[in-house]
Amino acid sequence: MTRILTITDRLENWGRWARSWSRRAEGDCLTAVICERLRKATNGILPGADGPLVNETDALQVDRAWRLQQDRHKSLLRWLYVRNASPDFICRRLHIPIRPVDFFDIELGRAVEALQNTLDKNQQGNRIRSSKQFDSVMKHDET
């Protein structure tokens, strides 16, 4: 049975993928290892446990859609899901009013909605391409 992922699940998966990818690219220094263990501990993952698995295919789809977003949306999503920054920090960094909290929620909602729309368009485009390829194969077989 296939589990249907919410956009939040997909973004959290993308964040795990991006964090593991950046660590592989930089190499593991002692400070990075300690910081990663502390980050996992704050998320409730015990030492030695691998934590949630990363769906690399889905993370690549999200990353492809993320790259097409406005800079402000990209920054907000990167700070929240990849760098695990607090909403207060993100607000200061991106010049979003901290109070009321609704401003952050509205900006996040816009960023997530734009990403979801891009993912939907990409998914629809993939279905169209697949059906065209199928049609061309069927026509080729008939001849």
Automatic annotation (TrEMBL):
Residues 123-143 are annotated as: Disordered. Residues 123-134 have a biased composition (Polar residues). The lineage of its organism: Bacteria, Pseudomonadati, Pseudomonadota, Betaproteobacteria, Burkholderiales. This is Phage antitermination protein Q. It comes from the Bacteria.
